[in-house]
Amino acid sequence: MHSTVANHATASLSTSPTVAKWTPNSIRTGVIARKRGMSAMWDEHGARFPVTVLQLENCQVTANVTTVRRDESEYHAVQVAASDRPAKTTTQQMRGHFRKAGVPPKRVVKEFPITPDAHVPIGTTLSAIHFVPGQFVDVIANSIGKGFQGTMKRWNFKGLRASHGVSVSHRSAGSTGAHQDPGRIWPGKKMAGRMGGKRTTTQNLAVVRVDSALDLIFVRGCVSGIDDAHVLVRDAKKKMTSLSRANQAKGLYEKVLPKGVDDLPFPAGTKEMAEALPPIIVAPSQRSSPFIPRE
């Protein structure tokens, strides 16, 4: 069953009147997903665009963290675990932790900083409907390792002339330091070295489709990392959290959330919410029709 509903949080919240409402000052938890690969989709105007498919694997809440810092401020976070694993390959300490939370042993455990009003009950199973089609997310992953690379590949150096006057130095780094002053190479100098294999964040990816039956999240664009790697998905800090607060302060209430999004599941999108909604929800195209003249 296909549906082109821009927002699904209203229906989910109406079924549970006791659930708190999302505000621009709220920061929700993120989820742990696996990058399944890339594909392509077409909007209603026939325009083709690339998407990355992310899948949740029994992502559950295992703890709520509250810590008092030295300056007496409080740190709040939700601990999330995903991807079931056999108990015999899990350490005794983690088995006791999962047993206390009432969830099966997991492969990956991460925590997401939140605001005090966004704690999620322990044992809650998160669903793909945690993200609304039309909103923006940040995806954190380890980039693909490229090994030891030269300056042209690693730092996009132009290289030296490949014609006259340069002898077997077309791809060299060139000068790396001065003579007696300073007599050394400055720290941070861009040189050849190991490339990739680092934690990277791809920001402001649009959620274009959500499949709650298979727990799939389709985001527009590419995501770092290899296929089947675990990634962290959260509300975009710039285009969601910061922009919502700024527009709220300016009184631009119609721009607090992206176009077509009326509300967000709060404190989280759960399996119970997904049962009351269509299995597949697609966001409407953000671009205008190329066949209608502009006014």
UniProtKB/TrEMBL annotation:
- Set out the biological process GO terms recorded for this chain's protein: translation
List the biased-composition ranges (Polar residues): 169-178
Q: Pfam families recorded for this chain?
A: Ribosomal_L3
Provide the alphabetized UniProt keywords.
Mitochondrion, Ribonucleoprotein, Ribosomal protein, Transit peptide
Leader sequence segment: none
GO cellular component terms given for this protein: mitochondrial large ribosomal subunit
Q: Name one GO molecular function term.
A: structural constituent of ribosome
* Region named Disordered: 1-20, 168-198
Q: Where in the cell is it found?
A: Mitochondrion
**Similarity section:** Belongs to the universal ribosomal protein uL3 family.
The protein here is known as Large ribosomal subunit protein uL3m
In the record, what lineage is assigned to the organism producing the protein? Answer: Eukaryota, Fungi, Dikarya, Basidiomycota, Agaricomycotina
